[in-house]
Amino acid sequence: MITKRIIPCLDVRDGRVVKGTNFKNLNDVSSPVDLAKFYSDNGADELVFYDITASAEGRKLFTDILRDVARTIFIPLTVGGGINTVDDFDRVLKCGADKVSVNSGAIRNPSLISEAAKRYGDQCVVLSVDVARVDGVFRVFAKGGRENTGLEAIEWIKRGVDNGAGEIVLNSIDTDGVKKGFDLEMLKAVSDAVSVPVIASGGAGCIQDFVTLFKALPKVDAGLAASIFHFGEVQISDLKKELAQNGILVR
Amino acid sequence: MIAIVDYGVGNLFSLKSSLDAIGVDACVTSDESVLRSADKIILPGVGAFRDAITKLRESGLDRVVVEEAQNGKELMGICLGMQMLFEKSFEYGEWEGLGLLKGEIIPLKDFVPSELKIPHMGWNKLIFKKDTPIFKYINDGDAVYFVHSYHAVGCDDSVCSTAEYGREVTAAVSLGNIHGCQFHPEKSGRVGLAILKAFCEKE
Hints:
By secondary structure, chain A is of the alpha/beta class. Chain A has helices at residues 32-41, 56-72, 86-94, 104-108, 111-120, 153-162, 184-193, 207-216, 227-230, 236-245, and strands at residues 5-13, 16-17, 47-51, 77-80, 99-102, 125-134, 137-142, 147-152, 167-172, 198-201, 222-225. Chain A has one domain (5-245): TIM Barrel (Alpha-Beta Barrel). Chain A has an eight-stranded parallel barrel, surrounded by seven helices. The longest helix of chain B has 13 residues, at 189-201. Chain B is α/β, with parallel strands linked by helices. Chain B is 26% helix and 32% strand. Chain B has helices spanning 13-21, 32-37, 49-59, 61-70, 80-83, 189-201, and strands spanning 2-5, 26-29, 40-43, 74-78, 88-89, 95-96, 104-107, 120-128, 143-148, 150-153, 159-165, 167-175, 178-181. The radius of gyration of chain B is 15 Å and the shape is globular. The chains are: A alpha/beta, B alpha/beta. The interface between A and B is medium-sized, with 27 and 28 residues.
């Protein structure tokens, strides 16, 4: 059967990885290419590159770096950030991305999902959603979690899947950065509602959090995290070992 | 030299990069004479069967690939490129393939249990079925990366590996000089590179 995936996420601004790192044997910890290779060599099942650049120059730099990364690693690569049009899909796919993640761009223009899915296939379109509880309701937030769109999250995600999103990244704003574990309640609601793969994001603080995630919610396909990997708090090889010992299928 | 057939389908960047990474002299080409003189041929492919086989035929390279393979040149099809090696496909209709291998391509949704997600996407472990030179550097149980909604059946003579997805799905085929991977070796990390290396080294 398909193995559970462990996915490090790299935020890139102006050509550098934003969060600091402290790996041994890695000279330039903020080089996206070096860090991507490190993860790829050390058991990551997939990488997510997120472009948080604002300027046009930064965007050009990002696509140049993407090409270098795609030349260096031989695992699936998902790219997000600043994806607003089908041309943006085209731009990053040509640089070697395998999947493209949309978030605010799909909120502004929901037909982006269906247009991209028609052209590149459902498997290529990842819908990334930032969700927080507001008065007990799961609401979708835009602009990096700063703006409440008023959209009800489960409805929005189901609509995205109907339009052709082949995968969901669910980022819980409520657990993000807290490092007390994934948002199991929110993840259950989403993974029960859709039949495409769901990637859990937000809240991982230690190895046990991933074990808990996959044991509690067998329908969740992958766990995504950034800082715990970047800061070396969790080594992917140790994480995989622990998952395997707990009967969870990993590569 | 290894020739990667470019017939206007999909992005060949990762495949070329992976061959570069293992130190293999490879080129992406739509030139008949390059394919004729190459040591080996890789036939890639993504998207829909009909579109891909139509483009391949329109390019005239289908004939070159078939003739070279029939003359004994080592050929590897990848993903949809592997599916095209067979007699026919039932992807949205019925389409004739290159007919280099016996068997046909059917939808996974009619094959695996209905509760399983389609496409079959992600890392899955290979179950070896017979010896093949393309697996000489890898082991039974190694995981590779799949993204597909169709697979080959009726290919008992060529199947060399499957993967378990509710039922055993055809993962790779190998018969004489003709090989195919349903998964993406260029996206399958160390294991995938080792498969490409073994193919490129094959005498």
